[in-house]
Amino acid sequence: MIVSMNFKRSLSSIMAMGVLAAPISAEENAIFAIEGDPDYGEYLSSECLTCHTGETDNYAIPPIKDLPTEAFILALVDYRSKLRENPAMQMIASRLGDQEIAALAAYFTAQQTE
Ligand code: HEC
Fold first, then answer.
1. pTM here?
2. CATH 3.40.250.10 is right for the domain spanning 2-14+25-109
3. Which residues approach ligand 1 with their CB closer than 6 A?
């Protein structure tokens, strides 16, 4: 049961658009409720930008600034809890607390172009 739920979650995170159809945990709701500090997010973002350069022809590393806020947060929570399997992102997310995730989401999603 838990395994199939996890599968559903990671699949919908990957698709990003379907993310709100997946069950949202209390942990995730707590992060949604935090008003992230974009300045702190900018400070934290330098590490992210070494990989997430925004080059859209790099299919191995997805661009992250155009993700919806919820999808951005859910992706990081899913790497942190190892629901999503990417060793680099799992390691990076394991060092992020809820405040850091909220701050990064605030910073990156503030740069969105229409
Ligand atoms: C070592 C390179 C590297 C660094 C540094 C890195 N990422 Fe990633 N990131 C990746 C790769 C590779 C993926 C795709 C992994 C996968 O297939 O699930 C990814 C995926 C993601 C996703 C999911 C994107 C999607 O469309 O589902 C988010 C969000 C993300 N990273 C945020 C961050 C943030 C925030 C930071 C900085 C705290 C960061 N990353 C640092 C390599 C990196």
1. 0.83
2. no
3. 16, 44, 47-48, 50-52, 60-62, 64, 67, 72, 75-76, 84, 86, 88-89, 92, 104
